[in-house]
Amino acid sequence: MVKIVVVTGSVRPNSAGQQVVPYVVKKLQEKDAVVSVADLSKLALPFFDSALPPSMEGFSPEHQSVLQWTTMVKEADGVVLVSPEYNHSLSGVQKNAIDWIYKEWEGKPVAFVGYGFYAAKHAYQHLELMNEVLHMKLIEPIAGLQFMQDLAVDGAVQDDEAVSKKIDATVSALIAAC
Ligand SMILES: Cc1cc2nc3c(=O)[nH]c(=O)nc-3n(C[C@H](O)[C@H](O)[C@H](O)COP(=O)(O)O)c2cc1C
């Protein structure tokens, strides 16, 4: 059984992601994955404040939450980023979480489930740029969920068939890559 961490992308109390994350978790569990959720509102990671970058020898974060987050990624066979699009990029809170880690990303199968008015395609473009440094194993296809088509703007599923198909394809590819 593969171990998958699903990462939230928003800490807003009424985040649309709160409806997307359980959908992704259910899809993974249906495929016998062991799933844990890295809820960034609960982890409350500090803004990156280390003297050394994570890519450097001797990098050793002391924050308990950063250690917990790093261990979650390290021990996972694969990761799903559930990402809103903020100003055509990933949310700041999710980028900060990604920035805290370096070597644990290398070769890690990472799937992207994005949502927004443009199906989070710009956010994914930023992740691809970040990946030129991080060397995750980005999984295709990504699941781009579009507001007012796939989802309502509050994140409620509007077109279950389309959402199911997109998430299914992404999580199946992720599990196959683990
Ligand atoms: C600061 C900010 C920037 C946003 N920029 C975009 C954007 O570039 N593209 C987009 O599709 N939606 C954008 N939105 C709308 C978000 O997609 C929408 O608010 C969504 O619900 C955010 O996800 P969340 O509810 O999980 O926080 C933006 C929202 C905020 C708060």
TrEMBL record:
Residues 2-140 form the NADPH-dependent FMN reductase-like domain. PANTHER family: CHROMATE REDUCTASE, NAD(P)H-DEPENDENT FMN REDUCTASE LOT6. GO terms for cellular component: cytosol. This is NADPH-dependent FMN reductase-like domain-containing protein. Signal peptide: none annotated. It comes from Candidatus Saccharimonas aalborgensis. One of its GO terms (molecular function) is FMN binding. It comes from the Bacteria.
